[in-house]
Amino acid sequence: NDENLEVKLWDEFDNIRKTITDIKDPRFVNAKNRLIEFYYDIVFDVAKQMHPKYNVLEVDELASYGVDGLYGAIDKFERERGLKFKTYASVKIRG
User: Fold this and answer.
1) Which is nearest to 9 in space by CA: 74, 88, 93?
2) DSSP code string of 56-80
3) Rounded to an integer, what distance in angstroms lies between the CA atom of residue 28 and that of residue 16?
4) Rounded CA separation 61/47 (Å)
5) Terminal Cα-to-Cα distance of the chain (whole angstroms)
6) How many Cα atoms within 13 Å fall on the side-chain side of residue 27?
7) Is 34 exposed, middle or buried (0-12, 13-18, 19+ CB in 10 A)?
8) d(CA 73, CA 78)
9) Are 41 and 25 in contact (CB under 8 A)?
C-alpha cells in the first residue's frame, strides 16, 4: 500500500534526520533519495501542467528544475502540521 510506504519512508527519514550531524551521512542521503523516488511523479505532473506556459522548455527540462523544489520541500516539510506533502511539494516545485 502506497500510504503505508509513505509513512514508513517519512518515519525513517525523520528518525535519521534527528540523529545525524552531517547531511552527507549515507543513511540520511539514502533515506532522502527514497523519498525523492517515491514522490518523483509529482515533479512530472507539475512539469506537464506548466509546459503550456513555458513551452520553450521540454517537460523533461522543466522536471529537472522541479527536482530542486522537491529536495527543498523534503528538507522543510513539517509533518506535525498535518499538511499533505503532495500539496506542499507541488507549490515548492512550481517555485
Assistant:
1) 74
2) TS-HHHHHHHHHHHHHHHHHH--GG
3) 6
4) 8
5) 30
6) 11
7) middle
8) 9
9) no
Residue 34 has which C-alpha cell?
527514497
Residue 56 has pLDDT above 90, yes or no: no
| C-alpha grid cell, residue 72 | 527543498
C-alpha cell at 86: 503532495
Q: Hey, what's the cell of 57?
A: 522548455
Q: pLDDT (tens digit, 9 = 90+) per residue, 37-50? A: 999 999 999 999 99
Q: Report the distance separating Cα 76 and Cα 50, nearest Å.
A: 23
Q: Which residue do the cell numbers 540523529 mark?
A: 19
Q: What is the average pLDDT across 21-28?
A: 93
Q: Which amino acid is at 68?
A: D
